[in-house]
């Protein structure tokens, strides 16, 4: 039975890893460490001609603390909306009835539920960043929801924390508000 469970979770794990890798590549590209097809470069023909680059989109994000302390800046979502109204029920467990505002106060810990809480804290911030017209966030709202749902449903602490790390990196890339 144990071997069956591992094989049946492999496609989900591959999806989580693929999404995590895609998101990580986007974060790495954001700091100039990976090739980005939206970047335009002009290579100088002599040493006196400068190189020019265009900054790729998606370089802004506000932290969970910002959104917790500035509910008047929320767009597209409300403070009393529940996690279950946004994210899929698979993986949420008893956390589904928590409001988006309350999730911004979640703390971490060593259990899988605690890992889910810390992911959801950053997930709500990423959700609000992606929905805000004044924030040039690195993911769409649909991408945030899909990545969070995949990580939560994996019930794998490492996958959950990997997704949290990606979202935290994007959320901490500089708040324009």
Structural summary, described in words:
- The structure is a single chain.
- The chain is mostly helical and 177 residues long.
- It has one domain.
- Helices cover 50% and strands 0% of the residues.
- It has six helices and no strands.
- It is globular, with a radius of gyration of 18 Å.
- The protein starts with a helix and ends in a 6-residue tail after the last helix.
Helix content: 40-55%
* Average of pLDDT: 79
Q: Give the class from helix and strand content and strand pairing.
A: mainly alpha
Total domain modules: 1
Could you tell me the strand content as a percent range? Answer: under 5%
Number of helical stretches of at least 4 residues = 6
Elements, N to C (H/E):
HHHHHH
Features:
single chain, 177 residues, mainly alpha, 6 helices, 50% helix, disordered N terminus
Summarize the helices and strands and which ones pair or pack:
Layout: H1 2-30, H2 64-69, H3 100-103, H4 112-131, H5 141-154, H6 157-171
Helix pairs in contact: 1-5, 1-6, 4-5, 4-6, 5-6
Summarize this structure briefly.
With 177 residues, the protein is mainly alpha-helical.
